[in-house]
């Protein structure tokens, strides 16, 4: 095992606070200070995001709307406005770019930034995080929390430490002790199932996990063992990837009311295919495999794919393939709460350049 020290970096993890719900509260004064859920409040609706006022009652994202109402009878549901969320996310990205080009978005509301060398020539990553948070507040009217540290793992954990509207700085000498005090379920990379398994072994905290040697971890957790071994020692040498290779392009929609009939399923899939083609065209991300995703009312998911000999370069073929995949599943065993369509097996951008075309835009 390589125990050499990873290069010292200055990493910031920015996480917007209750992003979707905060945008809605910003834009509607009647919602401010009240428990708000973005999503559907009907019997089959799902919470996409919850304000901090709603979280105080136990309301969380991905929770069925009916359960959220039981927890918080005064909960106000508002429909999502993804175009607005994307617009605000673009504003925030623009703020990041004033400081660095090494930005790795994780979603619309969070990203890693490597500011080891930055455009402002600032020596302090903490000062950069302060300025970014100030600019976000002044220019978008929203708040963000930041974690500042020497690697991605600790920065992400730190950003959650003082939410909302918080800043947490963990220096290299403090990393291992910081992880040691955390519940294992909070360690990035330890999912709910693994956390329960660890707890059944008496591993409740990072310190407990650190007390187990590598052979023990390998016996019980296989390939993930080395990551856990390093993580609880505050080690993570993953770089911030500013230009990760795109593996797929997809669009999916979750519905407030489950779709059942052939007509409404096809109509919704056609809308999804149009949005997918817009993304494909913009990114020039042409792939050979078209994949349909269906999530049922009971949250079970199936996917079906069709592959072509060459990358698909027209919307009609993608739309037709998606419809054929959907029709082959009809009648559905129960209503669909989500439909998705994507393309995979993208062509090599290097080969694309050699053919005299533009490289894939990431």
Quaternary structure of the protein:
single chain
Catalogue the unreliable spans. 348-362
Distance between the termini: 34 Å
Tell me the radius of gyration. 22 Å
Helix content: 25-40%
Q: How many structural domains does the protein architecture include?
A: 4
At the fold tier of CATH, the topology name of the largest domain is Dna Ligase, domain 1
Report the count of strand segments: 12
User: Can you tell me the CATH class of the largest domain?
Assistant: Alpha Beta
Can you walk me through this structure?
The structure is a single chain. With 362 residues, this protein is an alpha+beta fold. The chain has four domains: 11-17 and 83-172, Reverse transcriptase/Diguanylate cyclase domain (Alpha-Beta Plaits), CATH 3.30.70; 21-80, MutS, DNA mismatch repair protein, domain I; 175-231, 5' to 3' exonuclease, C-terminal subdomain (DNA polymerase, domain 1, Orthogonal Bundle), CATH 1.10.150.20; 248-354, Dna Ligase, domain 1 (2-Layer Sandwich), CATH 3.30.1490.100. Helix content is 37%, strand content 21%. It has 14 helices and twelve strands. The protein has helices at 19-27, 52-55, 65-71, 82-96, 125-140, 152-159, 175-180, 192-200, 206-210, 214-221, 225-231, 262-283, 315-327, 349-354, and strands at 11-16, 36-39, 47-50, 76-78, 103-107, 110-114, 144-149, 167-169, 248-259, 287-296, 301-307, 336-346. The strands form three sheets. It has a five-stranded mixed β-sheet with strand order 5-6-1-7-8. Strands 9-12-10-11 form a four-stranded antiparallel β-sheet. Strands 3-2-4 form a three-stranded mixed β-sheet. Helix 6 links the parallel strand 7 (144-149) and strand 8. Helix 4 packs antiparallel against helix 5, helix 10 crosses helix 11 and helix 12 (262-283) packs antiparallel against helix 13. The chain is globular. The two termini are 34 Å apart. The relative contact order is 0.10. The model is unreliable at 348-362 (pLDDT under 50). This is DNA polymerase IV.
């Amino acid at each position: 095992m390589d125990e050499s020290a990873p290069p010292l970096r200055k990493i910031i993890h920015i996480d917007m606070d209750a992003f979707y719900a905060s945008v809605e509260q910003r834009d509607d004064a009647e919602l401010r200070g009240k428990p708000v859920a973005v999503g559907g409040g009907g019997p089959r609706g799902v919470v996409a995001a919850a304000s901090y006022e709603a979280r105080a009652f136990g309301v969380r994202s991905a929770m069925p709307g009916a359960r959220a109402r039981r927890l918080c009878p005064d909960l106000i549901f508002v429909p999502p406005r993804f175009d607005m969320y994307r617009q605000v996310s673009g504003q925030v990205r623009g703020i990041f770019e004033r400081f660095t080009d090494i930005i790795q978005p994780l979603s619309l509301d969070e990203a890693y930034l490597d500011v080891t060398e930055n455009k402002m020539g600032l020596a302090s990553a903490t000062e950069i995080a302060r300025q970014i948070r100030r600019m976000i507040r002044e220019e978008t009217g929203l708040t963000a929390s930041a974690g500042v540290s020497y690697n991605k793992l600790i920065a992400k954990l730190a950003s959650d430490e003082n939410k909302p509207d918080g800043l947490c700085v963990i220096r290299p000498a403090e990393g291992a002790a910081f992880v040691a005090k955390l519940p294992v379920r909070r360690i990035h990379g330890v999912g709910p199932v693994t956390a329960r398994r660890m707890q059944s072994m008496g591993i409740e905290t990072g310190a407990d996990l650190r007390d187990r040697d590598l052979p023990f971890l390998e016996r019980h957790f296989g390939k993930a063992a080395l990551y856990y071994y390093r993580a609880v020692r505050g080690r993570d040498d993953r770089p911030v990837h500013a230009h990760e290779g795109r593996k797929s392009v997809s669009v999916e929609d979750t519905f407030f009311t489950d779709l059942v009939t052939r007509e409404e399923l096809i109509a919704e899939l056609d809308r999804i295919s149009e949005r997918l083609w817009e993304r494909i065209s913009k990114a020039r991300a042409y792939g050979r495999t078209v994949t349909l995703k269906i999530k049922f009312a009971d949250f079970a998911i199936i996917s079906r794919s069709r592959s072509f000999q060459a990358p698909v370069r027209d919307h009609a073929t993608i739309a037709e393939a998606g419809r054929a995949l959907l029709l082959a599943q009809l009648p559905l065993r129960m209503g669909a709460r989500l439909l998705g369509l994507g393309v995979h097996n993208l062509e090599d951008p290097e080969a694309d350049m050699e053919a005299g075309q533009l490289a894939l835009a990431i």
